[in-house]
UniProtKB/TrEMBL annotation:
InterPro entries: FIST_C (IPR019494), FIST_domain_N (IPR013702). It comes from Maribacter ulvicola. Residues 218-356 form the FIST C-domain domain. Pfam families: FIST, FIST_C. Residues 24-217 form the FIST domain. This is Uncharacterized conserved protein, contains FIST_N domain.
């Protein structure tokens, strides 16, 4: 595996950190939404890697090595020497916002023989990540792993962009298939958030749209908890996500709010909130988040045969808001576990995709550090 990384700052060109020739590399470009709206961005990357498979995604912060940047573009180009990648795309507008059907169509485009892993970079403004995963895994008993994340737009929640081999645009969902016997790919996630306050029952919901808790309008109840911070919704919701337990025995999933509808008194979450679920508010601290990142790295390393050569980190914008000036500490915690020889890239997101430890089925998470490790 060969890699090249680069950083682009506003009104500057990409600065390559370790330039070496690459043949048909996978080029992952994560960046600030305003910078990826520049009509020249694809041509600029294409000039650097003429035969590359170029994938874009907007962020709520860019990760490169042990650094967290804002308002930049980070690029990681990877040449796999013993394996290969296949990249496919779909747009939510072509499926009448039926995200499960989109997932089914997307996975149908990938040959299953030797498919080791599917890494997804999805638009993050409207997608129901739970439904998307259901579609991608609808065949069940699949032998490949699945991880990835939803694009971000800082804390603006205006629009997110992604693309494959073209300028970034809205509604795109990109899937990258990794093929080859020589590949070892592991993924994990961990949060570090704790519940507080009374447990409520979801009495009315539809997919990822939450109407009522305990028979009362969910948005009104949530605003009551937030108090004066309610005027900052949906941004302030990132500091107080919901823990969702679909059944008594199920693992709790963390859900943050993507949008609110003042007229309908509803909240749109990043993933499903089934009726009958039990929900509680959550909060966290800087130390809890840093420790959670370290635990995520330990889970990703557990049972690996080879040392990782590449790590893709997707962490949540909510974690970044809590960490503030100390955000890089969670990246440093990951690096301390996976080693200094691992190339690190990634971004802060509106949602993360990974299985729980010891499980095969992928889930949509919020407020977690999600890590995917690669070696060949």
């Amino acid at each position: 595996m060969k890699t090249v990384q680069a950083i682009k700052k506003p009104n500057e060109s990409f600065v390559l950190q370790n330039p070496v020739p690459l043949n048909e590399p996978l080029v992952l470009v994560f960046g600030n939404r305003y910078m990826l709206e520049n009509e020249q961005i694809y041509d600029e990357v294409k000039a650097l890697f003429p035969n590359g498979h170029i994938v874009f995604g907007t962020t709520s912060g860019e990760i490169i090595d042990d650094k967290v940047l804002d308002g930049t573009v980070v690029l990681t180009a990877i040449e796999f020497e013993k394996s290969f990648v296949l990249v496919k795309r779909c747009n939510v507008n072509d499926f009448q916002n039926d995200d499960e059907k989109l997932g089914e169509r997307l996975i149908a485009e990938f040959p299953k023989e030797d498919l080791k892993h599917l890494f997804v970079i999805s638009e993050g403004s409207t997608v129901n990540g739970s439904a998307l995963i259901e579609g991608l895994e609808h065949l069940k008993n699949t032998s490949f792993g699945l991880s990835g994340g939803l694009c971000g737009d800082d804390d603006r929640f205006e629009r997110t962009l992604a693309s494959y081999n073209e300028n970034p645009k809205e509604g795109e969902i990109i899937a990258i298939g990794f093929y080859g016997d020589s590949l070892e790919i592991t993924s994990s996630n961990f949060g570090g958030w704790t519940t507080f306050g009374p447990e409520r029952i979801v009495t009315k919901s539809e997919g990822n749209l939450l109407y009522e808790l305990d028979g009362k309008p969910a948005l009104d109840l949530y605003k009551k908890y937030l108090g004066e911070k309610a005027v900052e919704l949906p941004k302030s919701a990132l500091l107080y996500p919901l823990s969702v337990k679909a059944t008594e025995d199920s693992e709790p999933l963390v859900r943050t709010i993507l949008n609110i509808d003042e007229v309908e008194n509803t909240m749109t979450l990043a993933g499903d909130v089934p009726e009958g679920s039990r929900v509680q508010l959550m909060m966290s601290s800087i130390d809890d988040i840093a420790n959670g990142a370290s635990r995520a790295a330990e889970l990703a390393m557990d049972g690996r045969t080879n040392s990782p050569e590449l790590a893709l980190l997707i962490s949540c914008i909510g974690r970044k808001l809590v960490m503030d000036q100390r955000t890089e500490e969670e990246i440093e915690e990951v690096k301390a576990v996976i080693g200094n020889n691992t190339v690190i890239s990634g971004f802060y997101s509106y949602g993360e995709m990974a299985p729980f430890s010891g499980q095969d089925s992928c889930k949509l998470h919020n407020q977690t550090m999600t890590i995917t490790l690669f070696s060949e």
